[in-house]
Amino acid sequence: QCGKKAPKKLSLSVRTFKCVFCGNTMDRDHNAAQNILKKHLIRLLKPFVESGGLPPS
Fold it and tell me: Among 12, 26, 41, 49, which residue's CB has the most CB atoms within a 10 Å radius?
């Protein structure tokens, strides 16, 4: 939830991710999917936000 990366790689046998920074615990695949989604949403929305959003209608 905090967006920080784990300091080390988890082995594939470890199925639960626990953040050492904020304490959030969740399924590692769910956590990875959320991280990928956030990364790409930021990348897609950055030009829109930088341009000031929607033009006046």
Answer: 26
